[in-house]
Amino acid sequence: MKAYAWFMLLCVALVGCRQPDLLEGLDQQQANEVVAVLQRNNIGITKQDNGKSGYSVKVARVDFPAAVDLLSLYSLPSRPRLEVAELFPADSLVASPRAEKARLYSALEQRLEQSLRLLEGVVSARVHVSYDLDAGDGGRKASPVHLSALAVHERDVEPGLLISDIKRLLKNSFAALEYEHISVVLSRRAPIQHVAPTAVEPQGDGLWMGAAILVTILGLLAAAGWLYPWWVKQGRA
């Protein structure tokens, strides 16, 4: 029994060395965004292609809490890129005009959020459109469109310039949108509670070190499997 206990302890120790999944089911763009942010903050990652189930991202257990904080800080993973064909598939049931209009405006909000994230210094963004679902019914006049945007930005960004860029982008997204109907709220990104990356000279023996560790683990497993019957006999003797 003592030999069996040692064998199980070895297996548990080897399993404990396994990197936990930080995220899974990501598309390639989402995975790349996550990898870029974590690597910029000195966190080693492993990105794995799981075929139809998407990509998964793994980190060392010691870096797991910091990685979760960074993903929350940068609002990652981002929403999958929205395509018009996904909103109105050919085989979908015909919805009511109100439902179609609500779906269209929701899609516009998401597309605008994706565009705002492309602006330099923007970490994450949310856009809200005040739309009138009953406009046009019974000759009812449509209400003016109002837009509000919330953007989290990097700490070294000039807020005034960023507000100007955001308003200009939103203004040109709608034909009859007035500047006074656009509201932009900025929030500065919280400071990162993690060690910044440091420049390290590339070392050619890193790959050999990883291979040596893998060979050692496989050797221990093989030795344990070979010695297990002998341990069992000794325990019974």
TrEMBL record:
The keyword Zinc-finger does not apply. It is a lipid-anchor. The chain crosses the membrane at residues 207-228. Its main location: membrane. Residues 22-131 form the Flagellar M-ring N-terminal domain. Coiled coil: none annotated. GO terms for biological process: protein secretion. InterPro entries: AMP-bd_C_sf, FliF_N_dom, T3SS_SctJ, YscJ/FliF. Keywords: Cell outer membrane, Lipoprotein, Membrane, Palmitate, Protein transport, Signal, Transmembrane, Transmembrane helix, Transport. Belongs to the YscJ lipoprotein family. PANTHER family: FLAGELLAR M-RING PROTEIN, SECRETION SYSTEM APPARATUS LIPOPROTEIN SSAJ. This is Lipoprotein.
